[in-house]
């Protein structure tokens, strides 16, 4: 089955990211083709987030994925914060219903699923690095699943504030710290960035951990994940996160639920970009 040719009724979904990638475009459009849906998806960036979200509303754009650094900035620009977004005050998905913009956080939902599917032990402490919009989603998903731990964030204002919300400890740097579960939610290791070749945690911290989780999805095999695999650790990758959160977005935009096999196939296709 293939989707209809582009026409006046074709529905548009977009992503807004500081560094756009082809991942979402390939993931969603492949599924539109497979399921014969009259949708098209396009990755974009902007230097004016207020105007971009106004455009989503005014042009009838059905769905909008929001990435760093706008996950908190868009809160004031939407009409409704659904529970997944309001609980952590961070947005990664906007759905437009006839001009009404509703905000969700499918990052939180994806992390929640991965904690369960990987059988992570809530009795093991977490060392989590990062306090931005994605950091909030990941940290709250772990907290709400019953985990305790230490939040590492260089900014004492946001770091201490988030740690207090979580009921966790706060540290300005990860030096000398360790935990059975270490989680990177910073851009360290991201392709194209200044720290693309760097480790978010030291080799010693990797050696001490039993689970290494890197939310970075470009590339999926970050330096941290490669080091963890070499050390024989249980890994959770950003590729898994992006697939699950994209599947949740897909359902919000189209109303169509995906099978695990469809998600896996679309993710494998998207990751080949």
Tell me about this structure.
The protein starts with 10 loop residues before the first strand and ends with a helix. Helix 8 (223-230) links the parallel strand 11 (211-214) and strand 12. The mean pLDDT is 95. It is 38% helix and 18% strand. The chain has ten helices and twelve strands. It is of the alpha/beta class. The strands form two sheets. It has a six-stranded mixed β-sheet. Strands 9-8-7-10-11-12 form a six-stranded parallel β-sheet, sandwiched between helices. The chain has two domains: 11-104 and 246-271, Rossmann fold (3-Layer(aba) Sandwich); 109-236, Rossmann fold.
Descriptive tags:
Rossmann fold; 6-stranded mixed β-sheet; 12 strands; 38% helix; 10 helices; 2 domains; globular; 273 residues; 6-stranded parallel β-sheet; alpha/beta
Chain-wise SSE layout:
Blueprint: E1 11-16, H1 23-35, E2 39-44, H2 49-58, E3 63-66, E4 80-81, H3 83-86, E5 93-97, E6 100-104, H4 106-117, E7 126-129, H5 133-144, E8 149-152, H6 156-166, E9 169-171, E10 181-184, H7 203-208, E11 211-214, H8 223-230, E12 234-236, H9 238-254, H10 260-271
Parallel strand pairs: 1-2, 1-3, 4-6, 7-8, 7-10, 8-9, 10-11, 11-12
Antiparallel strand pairs: 3-5, 5-6
Helix pairs in contact: 1-10, 4-5, 4-9, 9-10
């Amino acid at each position: 089955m293939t989707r209809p040719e582009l026409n006046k009724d074709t529905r548009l979904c977009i992503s807004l990211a500081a560094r756009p990638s082809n991942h979402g475009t390939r993931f969603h459009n492949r599924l539109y083709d497979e399921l014969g849906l009259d949708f098209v998806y396009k990755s974009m960036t902007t230097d004016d987030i207020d105007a971009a979200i106004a455009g989503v509303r005014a042009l009838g754009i059905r769905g909008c994925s929001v990435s760093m650094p706008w996950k908190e900035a868009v809160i004031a620009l939407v009409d409704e914060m659904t529970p997944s977004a309001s609980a952590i005050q961070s947005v990664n998905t906007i759905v437009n219903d006839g001009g009404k913009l509703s905000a969700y956080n499918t990052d939180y939902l994806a992390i929640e699923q991965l904690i369960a599917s990987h059988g992570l032990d809530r009795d093991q402490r977490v060392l989590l690095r990062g306090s931005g919009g994605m950091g909030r989603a990941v940290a709250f998903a772990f907290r709400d699943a019953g985990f305790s731990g230490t939040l590492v964030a260089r900014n004492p204002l946001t770091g201490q504030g988030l740690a207090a919300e979580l009921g966790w400890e706060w540290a300005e740097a990860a030096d000398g710290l360790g935990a059975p579960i270490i989680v990177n939610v910073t851009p360290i290791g991201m392709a194209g960035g200044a720290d693309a070749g760097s480790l978010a945690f030291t080799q010693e911290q990797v050696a001490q951990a039993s689970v290494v989780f890197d939310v970075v999805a470009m590339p999926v095999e970050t330096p941290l994940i490669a080091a963890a695999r070499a050390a024989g650790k249980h890994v959770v990758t950003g590729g898994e996160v992006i697939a699950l959160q994209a599947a949740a977005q897909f359902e919000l935009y189209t109303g169509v639920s995906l099978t695990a096999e469809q998600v896996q196939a679309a993710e494998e296709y998207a990751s080949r970009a």
